[in-house]
Write a structure and sequence with these properties.
The complex is a heterodimer of chains A (282) and B (160). With 282 residues, chain A is an alpha+beta fold. Helix content of chain A is 34%, strand content 24%. In chain A, the strands form three sheets. Chain A has a five-stranded antiparallel β-sheet with strand order 4-5-8-6-7, sandwiched between helices. In chain A, α11 runs antiparallel to α12. Chain B has 160 residues and is of the alpha+beta class. Chain B folds into two domains: 77 residues, Ubiquitin-like (UB roll) (Roll), CATH 3.10.20; 73 residues, DNA polymerase, domain 1, CATH 1.10.150.120. The longest helix of chain B has 19 residues. The chains are: A alpha+beta (282), B alpha+beta (160). At the A-B interface, α4 and α8 of A face β4 of B. The structure holds flavin-adenine dinucleotide and FE2/S2 (inorganic) cluster (2 copies). One FE2/S2 (inorganic) cluster (FES) binds next to loops of chain B. Flavin-adenine dinucleotide sits at the interface of chains A and B.
Chain lengths: 282, 160
């Protein structure tokens, strides 16, 4: 009795509470076109699109209730990578594994394919989509960081039926907008470098073009922190990296790494990337 | 909402009526009795529930049943034909590539998928694939040895 009074029973751990048995029933719509999907979204209360389903199923196991799930699987043209003029298009349903194997992407954005072969695990890469990753946009997700470095834009269909191009860092807020895919400007050569050795504590991306470089820092911020750098930044690597780290905004609270450690590591990882850029290493 | 889903599981066709919210792991384990599909983390991390969907390794715990309509599914129960173990299963036995065995069905299916794509993978590729699934017992060395043994066996078979 006394022991109970001193040590009241601990509340159930959140992980113990998540279970596939908690997934509540929902209606399913299998859309055949983007417009049909958009119309189903407009006609339903509390609806969500689903691509690979990895994030959605996880949220639902933790209690998220969804009235209607609109499956995008049967819509043609949303999966795959193609060249449209001088822009590369990555369809929203393109899986991480598709990206890790794409010859076209490798030709136009060297480095991308190699980085993507290390994202998540193989089972997730087989099913999880680039679009789902961009819409979920959790701080440690790689697609927003890579796309922000490359200055990519997302093509979305808004619930009212109009289409618009939006910067990738603005995606995800409007759950009724459907992402068709992402465009990357490849009119000039561009290569992508990343240091994910501290992921999910910190990851740093660097896109290198003949006209300049753009770094993004992910995991430590709600949205990737973007910094444009002149090409000669790769000559004074340590100074530039230290300056970027010192001027980065406040970090999010993290239970696994202190803000001071993350800020220090921004300098270390960015310096490594600038060195690789200067030496033209992959 | 109830749905009709057609799947071929281990070579047998099934026309199933399922709830839209049901997961593949639950249907395999509770409807079809295929308990070789283990569930541990239930969130796509550990790989205990790995099964093959059209030859690709997938986490059954994180897959809605409606996603696999019209697919071919392989679980560990579907590997041995007429009681004869596959090369991968035989290699796991010979190299003692398990202790508690909880990860083993997922590991065997993962390795089966790898060797179907590349019968002679280099060590880096094997390590990259195996790093997807968690084994808390073996330290992976015996699993690596089993992959090498199965791969050598497949090459000998192909040459014969
Ligand atoms: C163990 C584990 C490790 C992981 N490691 C990494 C990692 O290292 N790096 C990383 O970046 N990610 C990682 N992830 C996350 C993983 O990449 C994502 O779960 C996956 O990409 C989500 O894609 P999906 O198709 O399954 O999304 P879904 O679950 O289908 O959808 C996700 C969200 O996006 C919405 N949505 C999906 N598609 C569209 C669309 N076309 N238009 C509008 N809305 C849409 C859905 O409604 C939902 O809200 C990891 C996940 C797990 C479980
Ligand atoms: S139980 Fe499915 S991945 Fe762990
Ligand atoms: S044999 Fe026990 S987890 Fe692998």
């Amino acid at each position: 009795m006394l022991a109970q009074a001193i040590h009241p029973p601990a509340p159930p751990h959140p992980i113990a509470m998540r279970s596939r048995k908690h997934i509540s029933p929902f209606n399913l719509v299998r859309a055949r076109t983007v417009d049909e999907a958009g119309q189903a979204m407009a006609a339903s209360r509390n609806a969500r699109y689903v691509a690979g389903g990895i994030d959605l199923i996880d949220l639902m196991k933790s209690g998220l209730e969804v009235g209607t799930i609109i499956s995008l699987d049967a819509i043609p043209g949303l999966r795959g990578i193609s060249l449209e003029g001088d822009r590369l298009f990555i369809g929203a349903l393109t899986t991480h594994a598709d990206i890790a194997e794409s010859e076209l992407l490798h030709r136009h954005v060297p480095g991308f394919r190699e980085i993507w072969a290390t994202v998540a695990n193989l089972r997730i890469r087989m099913v999880g989509t680039f679009g789902g990753n961009l819409i979920s946009a959790l701080p440690h997700y790689d697609a927003p960081a890579a796309c922000a470095a490359l200055g990519a834009v997302g093509r979305v269909r808004k619930a009212a039926g109009e289409y618009m191009d939006a910067p990738v860092t603005a995606l995800g807020g409007d759950k009724s907008a459907l992402l068709e895919g992402t465009f990357i400007d490849v009119h000039e050569p561009v290569r992508l470098l990343a240091d994910r050795s501290l992921h999910p504590v910190l990851s740093v991306y660097l896109a290198v073009r003949p006209t300049g470089m753009r770094a993004t820092i992910a995991c430590a911020f709600a949205r990737p922190h973007v910094i444009d750098l002149p090409l000669d930044a790769s000559l004074a690597q340590a100074d530039v990296a230290a300056e970027v780290a010192a001027s980065a905004p406040a970090m999010m609270e993290s239970s696994i790494a202190s803000a001071a450690y993350q800020r220090r590591m921004i300098a270390v990882l960015l310096k490594r990337l600038l060195k690789r850029a200067a030496e033209r290493q992959p | 909402m109830r749905l009709n889903v057609n799947v071929v599981v281990n070579g047998r066709s099934h026309a199933l009526e399922v709830g839209a919210h049901e997961t593949l792991s639950d249907v395999l384990r509770e409807r079809l009795g295929l308990t070789g599909c283990k569930v541990a983390c239930d969130q796509s991390v550990c790989g205990a529930c790995t099964i093959l969907v059209d030859g690709d390794p997938v986490s059954a715990c994180s897959t809605f049943m409606f996603k696999v309509d019209d697919s071919k599914i392989t679980t560990v129960e579907g590997l041995a034909a007429g009681g004869v173990l596959t090369r991968v299963q035989e290699a796991f036995l010979q190299d003692g590539a398990f202790q508690c065995g909880f990860c083993t069905s997922g590991m065997i299916l993962l390795v089966t998928a790898l060797l179907a794509r590349d019968p002679n993978p280099d060590d880096a590729t094997v390590q990259q694939w195996l790093s997807s699934n968690i084994c808390r017992c073996t330290g992976y060395n015996s699993i690596l040895a089993a992959v090498r043994r199965a791969s050598a066996g497949l090459r000998t078979e192909a040459a014969a």
